[in-house]
Amino acid sequence: VDLAILAALLFLFLIAGQWMAPGPTPSLLPTRNELLDLAIPYFIVFFALCFGYFTLFHFLTGQTPGKMLFHLQVEAEDGSPLTLSQAFLRSVGGLVCLLTMGLGFLAILVRPSRRGWNDDLAGSRLVGCREGSSSSG
Question: What is the distance between the alpha carbons of residues 7 and 13, in angstroms, rounded to a whole number?
Fold first, then answer.
């Protein structure tokens, strides 16, 4: 769910970038050469969007829309809401998990705590939503 939302945002970003580009714009989406020329700026913006998406949702509500759909939330190990620094570290940990070809997420399947490296780094855990939780959307 979250990846679909981020993909839609990327698509809208590409269309907006093409619309705002100087000169004639014969197509709705950028051409291959235009994408190659703008790959680094687009990557930086999209990376910041993804990183901010997960960090802010986890900090503000403990849930992304995908977690809301599946009635899951992220909290600190002591059950309190994540601080901004914990949410940031959880996103950093998620990036580390991805950069190691998913090994950090694979840990969830083999460890008794069922926590990935991202949760270890942030001091967080993924739990089912509590009854009456205001962030369950």
Answer: 10
Q: Domain ranges in the chain?
A: 2-128
Structure tokens at 66: 């995908």
pLDDT, tens digit, 9 for 90 and up, residues 55-109: 999 999 999 999 999 999 999 999 999 999 999 999 999 999 999 999 999 999 9
Q: How far apart are CA 123 and CA 101, in angstroms?
A: 22
Spell out the SS3 assignment of 9-62. HHHHHHHHHHHHCCCCCCCCCCCHHHHHHCHHHHHHHHHHHHHHHHHHHHHHCC
Q: Which residues contact 75 (CB under 8 A, 6 or more apart)?
A: 62, 81, 82, 124, 125, 127
**Mean pLDDT across the chain:** 89
Distance CA 55, CA 84 (A): 8
pTM here is 0.81
